[in-house]
Write a structure and sequence with these properties.
Elements: E1 5-8, H1 24-37, E2 41-45, H2 51-59, E3 69-75, H3 87-93, E4 99-105, H4 108-115, H5 119-135, E5 139-145, H6 147-153, H7 155-168, E6 172-177, H8 184-195, E7 202-206, H9 213-223, E8 227-230, H10 244-254, H11 262-265, H12 268-279, E9 296-297, H13 300-308, E10 326-327, H14 335-344, H15 354-368, H16 377-386, E11 396-408, E12 417-429, E13 432-440, H17 443-455, E14 466-474, E15 485-492, E16 497-504, H18 507-527
Length: about 525
């Protein structure tokens, strides 16, 4: 069986993605997760380039890595400088690692136009740098930057760069599609050409500027490459790097290459989400394998078929990569979606299908009014409860009124203006109508306070419910301020998190409906309904 090594550069190349900045602690935590995933090489950073990476390599000496080898990244020596006097190479030697990856130009145009040196000097820079690091006991991976572009323009010179690194003692030659513009057939042809001039193991480092980084990496493996470099979630500069979260399951499940164990593969989605959370970035729900929507089914025919045979509309068992099948309910749904979702929530609908039919009609009606239940499962569960003939809600909404007043204050009181929001609500609880008024720092907050003021008298524990996120989406931009809006609210009691939705042409009403659903859902859960 072909052996393929996984090389992760999330902590170095991945940090070049816009909006990503890991602290030293973040990098240490991610390295531990990558080790648990079974990554063979973890490129920790670029010692000597910044204090953060220097601190990382210092603290990384205490990491207990069971599966991974830590790699320090750097450049070949500078032109007209001795390797032993080059500060960058000295930083690699002092990083406390056993493996170094050094990048060198392998394109004649890059050498002459960017480095502003001669082709021969660049070859000496490669040879001297690899040989020097080898003399210090380091294993050296040579990253041949711009290799594929260079091969097109001057194939003889690009191949000479590789043989120079190989003869100096490099253990692996990583071929870099630095600009991300190659096609899979070009990658495969290049790998075949390289294998004719050297027996040193080859790697592939692909960027995603043509949306082909994963495909190019797999094509390279098929042509004989044995090391694949990439990042978690495809983080990287411009359009990103090859996404290891797609490459790993493709290698293992589609190509039969056992690069990590089954148990490690089942942690893939967890690692993907962990890196997103650490980077403080929203997860891309559409990512293959690990995205929340990767195994999501919305169309009624799809759900009906999936209930009969799981593989009818999904290419693998999602649990193999730590993900799960998901059915969403929308105006495109059929009764199968309703039955599936109800079962998933632990709610049994009668087999006659009458309640499911009624519920489906209600879903389609509500979505025509701006509601959407794909990411508001608490509101959907309430819909199911409400179609039951014996359902008794913990409270019923009556009237509400919101007043927003702008007041001017004397200069002696600080700010000359004050915005006051006041809400009045009527709520029926146990046949008793509660009429309460409350102020807030905005109309939605005022409504929230007034509603809670009514309910706290009957349900004191509702004080533990907190609103943690509030989103508004305009559904018909061309209509302007008269457009329908959708409000999505995320709430928590400190243990569970749930989402509710409201829709209306009036943003206050949409917010009111979503708020009410949030509290009703929590009260039902407390009753064990």
């Amino acid at each position: 069986m072909t052996k393929v090594e996984l090389y992760d550069t999330t902590l170095r190349d991945g940090t070049q993605k816009e909006g990503v900045s890991f602290s030293v602690v973040d990098k240490l935590n991610i390295a531990q997760k990558l080790d648990e995933l079974g990554i063979h090489f973890i490129e920790g950073g670029y010692p000597g380039s910044n204090p953060k990476d220097d601190e990382f390599f210092q603290k990384a000496r205490t990491l207990h890595l069971a599966n991974s080898v830590l790699v320090a990244f750097g450049n070949t020596r500078r032109a007209k400088t001795k390797a032993e006097e080059d500060a960058g190479l000295q930083a690699l030697v002092n990083a406390g690692v056993k493996v170094a990856a050094i990048v060198g130009k392998s394109s004649d145009l890059q050498v002459t136009r960017v480095l502003k040196t001669t082709l021969e000097e660049n070859l000496s820079m490669i040879t001297d740098s690899v040989a020097y690091l080898r003399s210090k006991g380091l294993t050296v991976i040579f990253d041949a930057e711009h290799f594929f572009d260079g091969l097109k323009n001057n194939p003889d010179y690009s191949l000479r760069c590789l043989t120079a690194a190989a003869e100096a003692g490099a253990s692996c030659l990583a071929l870099c599609d630095t600009n991300g513009g190659m096609l899979p057939n070009e990658i495969a042809d290049a790998v075949v050409a390289v294998k004719k001039v050297t027996s040193v193991p080859l790697g592939i480092h692909a960027h995603n500027d043509s949306e082909l980084a994963v495909a190019n990496s797999l094509a390279a493996v098929s042509a004989g490459v044995t090391q694949v470099q990439g990042t978690i979630n495809g983080y990287g500069e411009r359009c990103g790097n090859a996404n290891l979260c797609s490459i790993i399951p493709n290698l293992k499940l589609k190509m039969g290459i056992d690069c990590i164990t089954d148990e490690q593969l089942a942690r893939l989605a967890e690692v993907s989400h962990f890196v997103n959370e650490t980077a403080n970035l929203a997860s891309d729900t559409s990512l293959p394998y690990v995205g929340a929507s990767a195994f999501s089914h919305k169309g009624g025919l799809h759900v009906s078929a999936t209930m009969r045979w799981n593989e009818s509309y999904q290419h693998i068992d999602p649990s193999k990569v730590g993900n799960q099948q998901k059915v969403v309910v929308s105006e495109l749904a059929g009764k199968s979606n309703i039955f599936y979702k109800a079962k998933e929530l632990g709610l049994n609908l009668p087999p006659t299908g009458k309640e499911a039919k009624k519920l489906l009609e209600q879903v389609k009606l509500m979505e025509s009014r701006g509601f959407q239940y794909e990411n508001a499962e608490a509101s959907f569960e309430l819909l199911i409860q409400r179609v039951k003939p014996d359902y008794q809600p913990p409270f019923e909404l009556g009237d509400f009124m919101v007043v927003v007043e702008k007041r001017r204050r004397p200069p002696s009181q600080g700010s000359p203006e004050e915005i006051l929001s006041e809400a009045m609500v009527k709520v029926r609880v146990n046949k008793k109508i509660m009429h309460t008024v409350a102020e807030g720092n905005g109309p939605v907050n005022a409504l929230d306070q007034a509603l809670r003021k009514s309910l706290l008298q009957f349900y004191p524990s509702i004080a533990s419910v907190k609103l943690v996120d509030y989103k508004v989406r305009i559904l018909e931009e061309t209509i302007g301020t008269s457009a329908q809006v959708r409000v999505l609210i995320e709430s928590t009691d400190g243990e569970e998190v749930w989402r509710t939705v409201g829709g209306s042409t009036n943003i206050i009403e949409a917010s009111w409906l979503a708020l009410a659903d949030s509290l009703e859902y929590w009260l039902l859960k407390q009753k064990g309904t």
